[in-house]
Structures are given as structure tokens and as C-alpha cells.
Specification:
Length: about 425
Amino acid sequence: MIQFLPSPLQTLSKLPPILRDKVCGVVFKSSLDPNRGVLCQSRLYSGTLKPRSKLFNIRTNTSAQVSNLFQVDADRVKLQDSCEVGGITMMAGCKDFRTGDVFVCQSLKSQFHNIDELIQSNRTLKSTMNHSKPLFFCSVEATDSISNDRLEKVLSDMMFEDPTLTLERRDSGELVMGGPGRLYLSVALERIKDERGISCKAYKFRVNYMETVSQQIEHVHTGPLGELHLTMSPADSGKVVTVKNVCPKTREVVEPAIDSALTIGPLLGLQLSECLITAKFNLIPPEHSKFPTKEEKKDLNLMVKTAIRDIFRNNLSVMTLCEPIAEIEVEGPQEYSSSIIADFSLRAESLEYQTLFSDEGNWFTLKGCAPLSKLTDFSSQIGRISRGMASVLKIETVKYGPMELDSCREIVKMFEEGKL
């Protein structure tokens, strides 16, 4: 423990001078207690914390008063008169505090903006405030209907304790849980079973893939109202739809129809992205001034959906999947930089290295982008390489990029076989 874990007093010299004589700490776990309300297990980095102390939350810009302090020893809890520097305590009464929040004493509230800038520049405190956005998702369902009613409440409580977990109830009734990794979600599901007694099953862990075209394709569709020339081509970012040769009233009909048709791709029924779509209409001039009528709107909708269905069907060979591209940021001591760079370079498409000099010693920062499929064990690997000293500050999806056709075919095959 002495070799791998820091001394409680080591962090004192790393804090900004304005905080050293004042109360400053971090909530490393918040939980809901049926009797005591919100409980915040916290580490104190400076000052002395006592019951009735007034604290200021940097994240929420709100104040709270500590009602009681508790010392936790395994499953035993006892009241605590005070908590000193480096100590760990459990606070009651701070209902707006959450996991990762940094708090200071109330007297520093007027200097909030300066403190926030100092914390963002301090790696000891900054690393606690960065929460990864969900990168992997799975559908969750209890094994029996009785437990199914409790499952959503249990997952909501877990989200309260762990901000890296997300929960969404889809229109189909599907309950989807998201997290930073497959192992992370697996552990969360085990906790539901062990701690709450709810046996649940998770359907295939998956990445949010999308579909796109690998080269420009064209199609001409003829309907009762005229012709539709449809063109699709790859794009660097997002989906852009351009409609030509139509009046405003017709545009109001065809644009939603195009968007709707592009939500279901031909490979796996996923949304289309990273492409440019041009729809050029050559409509037969209407014989009346009320164009389009209700029936003509139906014909336009059918014309658009049929054209998109046909262009997909005729060009399946050039359709491919888009995978999420994540932006990554890693920070750690200089002594581990070469090993981490070696691992990082095998995954990343781009790499930016920077050395930081400070009172804490020489540190480095690595930034880059990598396909999400190459990051399944990244955080764990960085921890092993650096013995827990380096931190992954950021893994966040910033765009989607087309996969190679061979990789795409492999993913499609796995989907068809039920392996994804």
C-alpha cells in the first residue's frame, strides 16, 4: 500500500495557495439512504471540516450546510466531531452534491470564478470532475415481471451514485443502459443482482453504429407526379439533405419524408449519417393552384420513400457502416510516457504530445482520436501501464467515420448471427 498509494499529506502541496488554509474536498461517492437522505463520502484536501460547516459546490454554484459527519468502518457508521486534512468522511445534509463534485468553504463563494479556474488547472482536483460520456449500450430486462417494475428505480438510484451510467426508456418500451465500457456495464448488472436481489439479463452490448455510402451513387425514380433524381455521396461530418426545384409547400412535405426514410438503412436498419443527399425534383406542372393536395402529399411521400428504397437496394455493395470516433486525452507522470505512447499509437488515428513542467514534477499530456472499437480496454491498460498514476481525462465521441468494407461485412455477419 505504501508503494502504490499516495500519502494523505502529499496532495497538500499540490493545491492552489488560496485553498490551503480553507476547507477543500472532493465527493468520491454519493448515495441515497432511506433514513439520512443524500450521503456524500468525501476526501478532504485542506482545512478542517466540522458539522454545521457551510460549503460551496463549484459545479452547481450552490451552497449547503453539513448536518452531520460520519466515520465509516466497513458496515459500521458512527458520528464524527471533525475531519482533518487527508481524512475521509461521510457528509449528510448536502442534497445537491454528487459524485465528483469539488467543494470549498462558503467564505470563498465570492471568488468562485477564480477558484474554478484554479481547479481546472490542478490535475488532482480536475481529474475528479471529468466524467466519461457513455460509449457502450445494452438493453436491460428483469427475468420476471414483478422485478421489472423495480428495475428502473434501482437503475435510477445507481445513476445517482455513478454519473458515468445513463438510462433511457425508448418509445418501444426498451430500457437502455449506457456506460464507458463493456466491463463497466457488466459489473453494474452484477451489482443489481448481488445488492438489490434483482436477476436481470442484458441483451447484446453494442456500439452505436450508423450507415453511410462509400462512394457517390445516383438513382432516378419516375412517379405519377414526375421524376426524382436522387444522389448520395460520402461526407466528412453529419448528414446534409438538399432539396431542389420545389416550392415551399412541397418542400414542407418532402423534407420530413426524406429524413424519415433515412432513419432505416439497408444493412442493419440503422440511421444514415456522414453523407450528402441531393433530391432534385422534375415535377409535372399542376393543373390547379392548391398543389399539393392531400392525395398529392401521399404521392410525394411514396415517391420519396420508394426512390430511397430503390437506391439502397441497387447499391448494397457500396453501403458501409460508420463507427464512432472518440477524442481521447491522457495525463500522467513523465516516467510512464514512452509505454503509454506505444499503446496509444496503436489505437489512435492522430496523436499530440505535450510535456508539462510544474511544482509537482514533469507530466505529459496525450491527445488524439481513435475508433471506438479500438478502445474497449484502453482505460484499464493505461492503469496497468502506469500503476494507476496516469489518468484518462476524456473519452468522448466527436464524430463518425466510415469503416473499411471488410470490417463492415464482419460486423454485419456478427449482427445476423446474433453475436452483437
